[in-house]
Write a structure and sequence with these properties.
Elements lengths: L3 E5 L4 E7 L1 E3 L5 E3 L4 E5 L2 E7 L1 H14 L11 H18 L2 H4 L3 E13 L6 E9 L6 E2 L5 E4 L6 H11 L4 H5 L6 H16 L9 E7 L2 E6 L2 E3 L7 E3 L8 H10 L11
Helix pairs in contact: 1-2, 4-6
Length: 263
């Protein structure tokens, strides 16, 4: 169970926001997993569904992108189109118990040369691929989309729909500085989860910004000052960033539910 949100801003970058919670077949939950990762120059990817399949998908995508020269970058649409058949093959090769949990992939990309009419404002894209067929679904510029169980919750969908209803909403927020919309989007997501808690969704999140030249991922840490004036620190707990690390973290916690893990 999870909620990963993505959008291609009109000001030359793509943004993704992902929570860190994992749910297990026995009903337990744990905030312990990073789900968004840099994959290549100007490309990032995130996963929802089976944790095991998610990491296999990232490994497959990394292998597919392995030969890019340091001074070159992939075209986001081609990455999505070329990865789709590989993703389908990976999905079919895993045990049925993992396939039953499903798999969704979100790709955030920035075109290396094409701009949106203003020099330096790169054309960005967000693609979603869903099991079992993994046909790439491309979102419009300014549209906010999501994957995971959070995308099925009415209050969560409504929060994102308000952004998508106004294609210029992200650029309006960037009047406070390029990239400001990513922070505001993250705040809206965090407050939506805080006010409408749901099984499998955490308030802790990673914010990913993909620009022409960089992929930056950071936690949504903040200092909160309640009415009594006492500062409260909201900090990301330790998270696993590989399948082996995830399994090891569960073992240290006395748990062995890795194959039933869903995010």
């Amino acid at each position: 169970m999870t909620w990963i949100v993505g959008a291609a801003a009109t000001t030359g970058y793509a943004v993704g926001v992902s929570d860190i919670r994992v749910s297990f077949g026995n009903g337990q939950e744990l905030d312990c997993l990073q789900k968004l990762y840099p994959m290549a120059r100007f490309i990032a990817a995130g996963f929802a569904g089976s944790v095991e399949i998610g990491f296999r998908m990232l490994d497959g995508l990394a292998y597919q992108l392995r030969d890019a020269p340091n001074d070159r970058a992939f075209l986001p649409q081609e990455v999505a189109d070329c990865f789709a058949p590989l993703a389908k093959d990976i999905f079919q090769m895993v045990p049925a118990v993992s396939r039953d949990l499903g798999s969704h992939i979100i790709l955030l990309g920035v075109h290396p040369t094409e701009d949106l009419g203003i020099p330096g404002w790169a054309r960005c894209s967000v693609h979603v691929l869903k099991s079992p067929d993994f046909v790439p679904e491309s979102s419009s510029i300014g549209q906010v989309v999501s994957i995971g169980s959070g995308s099925q919750i009415d209050t969560y969908r409504d929060a994102l729909a308000r952004f998508s209803a106004d294609p210029l909403s992200l650029i309006k927020m960037d009047t406070a500085g390029v990239g400001a919309s990513s922070m505001i989007l993250s705040m809206v997501i965090q407050k939506t989860v805080e006010r409408n808690p749901a099984h499998g969704i955490s308030r802790h999140a990673h914010i990913c910004i993909v620009r022409r030249g960089s992929v930056n991922i950071q936690p949504n840490d903040e200092d909160v000052y309640p009415p009594n004036g006492e500062k409260k620190e909201f900090r990301m707990p330790p998270v696993a960033t590989t399948w082996d690390e995830f399994v090891e973290r569960l073992a240290r916690a006395g748990r062995d539910f890795s194959r039933s893990a869903i995010c």
